[in-house]
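pls design
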């Protein structure tokens, strides 16, 4: 079938609509979630000040976000702030661990197993899911709570089961997966920047 490209004006209109839709959800997220973002920052700072650490997990794009945010904390956000690395670990990066877990104990259990091995009372787990229905992330949240860790949920839609597993549930007010993901990485950047600034700035 022949490809019929959009006109320049149609492309520009599409691009504008996408930017405006993203901006609208971010505005609503600020209005509805700012207080919970502050609570998440307070939980993380309290843990780090007590020599705890931050664990993060998610699937697909949320796995990439977990890795991205762990890196921002270990390396840096603001190059003007001279600081040591902050203890943060994405549970999504070890292919041997993930594939062995999926093969031997079932994929739903892989993050919970890592939390069991690496988590300690007072640590914080951030679970990232656009729907709040991810079994592997929710089981990790349950395990974290059982270990005496604090839990933060980056969620979208109606929050799903994850909202009840999170000490702080940050629910992006959208049903659109890509809009949720765009807001979640912004939330993560804000949290990382505030943690860095308040601890070392």
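designed seq:
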């Amino acid at each position: 079938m022949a490809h019929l490209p959009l006109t320049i004006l149609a492309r520009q209109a599409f691009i504008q609509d996408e930017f405006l839709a993203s901006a609208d959800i971010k505005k609503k997220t600020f209005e509805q979630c700012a207080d919970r973002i502050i609570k998440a920052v307070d939980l993380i700072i309290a843990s780090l000040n007590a020599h705890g650490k931050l664990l993060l997990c998610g699937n697909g794009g949320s796995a990439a976000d977990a890795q991205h945010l762990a890196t921002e904390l270990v390396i840096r956000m603001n190059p003007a702030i001279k600081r040591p690395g902050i203890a943060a670990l994405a549970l999504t990066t070890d292919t041997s661990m993930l594939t062995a877990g999926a093969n031997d104990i079932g994929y739903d259990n892989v993050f919970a197993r890592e939390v069991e091995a690496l988590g300690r009372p007072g640590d914080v787990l951030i679970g990232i899911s656009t729907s709040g229905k991810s079994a592997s992330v929710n089981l990790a949240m349950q395990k974290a709570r059982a270990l005496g860790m604090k839990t933060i949920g980056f969620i979208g839609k109606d929050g799903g089961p994850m909202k009840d597993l999170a000490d702080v549930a940050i629910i992006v007010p959208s049903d659109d997966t890509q809009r949720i993901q765009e807001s979640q990485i912004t939330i993560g950047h804000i949290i990382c920047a505030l943690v860095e600034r308040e601890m070392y700035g």
